[in-house]
Design goal:
The protein is α/β, with parallel strands linked by helices. The protein has helices at about 5-10, 15-35, 55-75, 80-90, 95-100, 125-145, 195-220, 225-230, 260-275, 295-310, 325-330, 335-340, 345-350, 370-375, 375-390, 405-410, 425-440, 480-495, and strands at about 40-50, 105, 115-120, 175-180, 235-240, 285-290, 315, 350-355, 360, 390-395, 415-420, 445-450. The strands form 2 sheets. An 8-stranded mixed β-sheet has the order 5-12-11-6-10-7-9-8, with helices on both faces. The longest helix has 26 residues, at about 195-220. The two termini are about 70 Å apart.
Length: about 500
Amino acid sequence: MDLRGFLKIVARRWPVAVTVVVLGIAAGWAATAVSTPVYEARTQLFVATRHGGEDTAQLNQGQTFSQARVQSYAAIVATDQVTESVVRKLRLDMEPRQLAERIKAEAPLNTVLINITVSDTEPERAAQIADSVAGRFAQVVEQLESPRGAAAAGPARVGEAGYPPVAAAPQAPVHLGVTEHASVPAAPVSPHALLNLAAGLLAGLLGAGALVVLLETLDTTLKHHTDLAELTGHAVLGTIPFDREAPQHPLANSDSGHSARAEAFRRLRTNLQFTQVDDPPKVLVVTSSLPGEGKTNTAANLALALTEAGVRTCLVDADLRRPCVAKTFGLVQDAGLTTVLIGRAGIDDVMQQGPGGLSVLTGGAVPPNPTELLASTRMSDVLEELADRYEAVIVDTAPLLPVADTVGLAPLADGTLLVVRAAKTTRDQIKSAADALRTVGVRTLGTVFSMTPTAKSKGYGSYGSYGDAEPPVTGRHRMPTPRTIRERSGVALSYLAGEK
């Protein structure tokens, strides 16, 4: 995957990427908010040698001696000899080893300086501990360097109460002096707000990149029509752009005949007319793998596009489980295809008119055995009769994978059009649907890639759940009023009861 491909993935899944980045920044801020501030106080000591003269050789020798010992002195700062005394003196509520963990000592190379740093949650206490550690540390070093049993270098002290004179205490060869006392720190050294936010941002960016790549790897849906053509082996006859207004205005030419969707269906009509030139199909089944892929919308608008071109067209709703054509055009659902199949009425009796002179045969009452009805000889006779009357018959059927209705009906038609929803239908589902048609010997004329994202669209959106298509409420063909529907229903029911 190159950089261009990665950026396309991020652009396609930007909500996920932005969410992960925001969570990373929030984690950095939360780490800063919940962390206890820690302050550091610093003090410095100077290691000097005691000498008996001011000879240059002696001074150099003392300097070399101090530099050789100062690294060892720094390792003594956090020992128990120092920390136990400081804990007792300041009455600290901690163990000596706990205090040792808060003390850092370093001796810069080629110097006789020792820097002591103490960290604590209270700035005043940090300064007090630093000064106390420095003072006690100086005492411990001088005690350790004092020669044991050596005679006094200076004059003897007079004894008390007649006791003999007492020898003066031997002096250590080094002396530690404080060059810099600890001051109360004004600001904490941790947590670092900017550092935590930067770390959270970096973690969010890395996590977002990894997550979008993982999601893209696990995502088996199709994003481009070329992938659909390679998977099915059939030409993509149409690419229908997503329109968020489709649920309210399912007919593409109801408001504006020059919209992107309307032009897409006109291209589909043109491409369909150029397929199978030697044996042009008259009865065309429109189906999909699963509900919600836009098959009813495609069938209805394709039928309107053919009618617009002057082709005598009939739209048949053969989805007898969840018929949607009647709702799409605002027609009567009570009498239709099932009425003709059971012999209660003829085709002319239940045929209704849609916009532009389109003939519409709605589904009728929902039967208990749709699979048997659609695969019956009577259904074949109905399609033949419609093919004799019209130049094109568009049949909207049930999805292929949930039910077997279309598998029984499709062989009765001249060809099938498979509708696939972009970024929704998986490769396995598409392949299963294509295999189901191929198994029964159905001629698949091509595929339609529906609900593809456009530049103006903010997402793939949805046409609504299967069977929830809304009738048009604006445009040249408006939904009939409740009174008109009751009147039409009365006429249809009266005919079914034998009143002509």
